[in-house]
Design brief:
CATH topology of the largest domain: Jelly Rolls
CATH architecture of the largest domain: Sandwich
Number of helices: 3
Number of domains: 2
Radius of gyration: 28 Å
CATH class of the largest domain: Mainly Beta
Length: about 240
């Protein structure tokens, strides 16, 4: 009786193994016959700027910029980014005509013996991810200063506008050569973190410049203009000329 039970149990186990193998073969055959489904790649953060003017996004954020490859400025922490330190660091002349003509895409600047290039880019996000910009180019991401320039074309004169800025970490911003905003201290990027005093966007061309300094950690910024009622200004376009 015990021998019969053993044989029966062995037969059951053998049947289970054969059934499992057959199932595996059938699954593999089904997968081999199934059509491959293309997996969408994530969109790149930056794309080269085109010749056509670019409108802000639906919330008014400026998404076209000329970015200079990062300037080395070692800082082990961001705790020392006082107003005095940041203002001195970001108003130092690192290259000739720093506040002169708008640079061109591919133009080279030499800073402390290091050649750095300007890149005209569009971002597909509301913020400009400087860390990714530097990383994609194989450039330093920590202990750096980034320079950014864009040209806002306005169809009309806009009075009582405000520049609204958020940055990680500290930064300074200029509109048509005049200082408009300063963000000091170790800070995270928050939308509309600092608003400028009321200013005027001229009909036609307006040059916006910014400089962002960071030690360790991520670097990014977001910029837009708000009207006198705090609404995003969207009837403007952006160029890099």
């Amino acid at each position: 009786m015990a021998i019969a039970m053993t044989k029966t149990g062995a037969s059951v186990r053998l049947g289970i193994r054969m059934s499992s193998r057959l199932s595996a073969v059938l699954v593999a055959a089904t997968l081999a016959a199934a059509p491959l489904v293309a997996v969408a790649e994530p969109a790149p953060v930056f794309t080269p700027a085109t010749a056509a003017p670019k409108a802000p996004d639906s919330d008014g954020f400026l998404q076209r910029w000329l970015l200079l490859e990062p300037i080395s400025k070692p800082n082990r922490t961001n705790t020392g980014f006082t107003g005095t330190y940041v203002r001195k660091a970001l108003t130092t002349e690192y290259f000739p005509k720093q506040f002169g003509p708008v640079p061109k895409n591919g133009q080279m600047q030499t800073v402390a013996g290091t050649p750095l290039a300007w890149h005209a880019v569009d971002t597909n996000l509301f913020d400009v991810k400087l860390f990714n910009f530097a990383q994609d180019l194989g450039k330093p991401t920590y202990g750096v200063i980034f320079w950014a320039v864009t040209v806002v074309e306005s169809p009309r004169e806009i009075t009582n506008a405000r520049l609204a800025v958020g940055t990680n970490s500290a930064s300074m911003w200029w509109v048509n050569g005049e200082e408009a905003a300063g963000l000091f201290g170790d800070r995270r990027m928050v939308m509309d973190d600092v608003l400028s005093a009321p200013l005027t966007l001229h009909k036609g061309r307006n040059v916006i410049r910014g400089a962002v300094i960071n030690g360790p950690g991520l670097s990014d910024f977001c910029v837009r203009f708000l009207d006198a009622d705090g609404r995003p200004i969207r009837d403007i376009t952006l160029t890099t000329r």
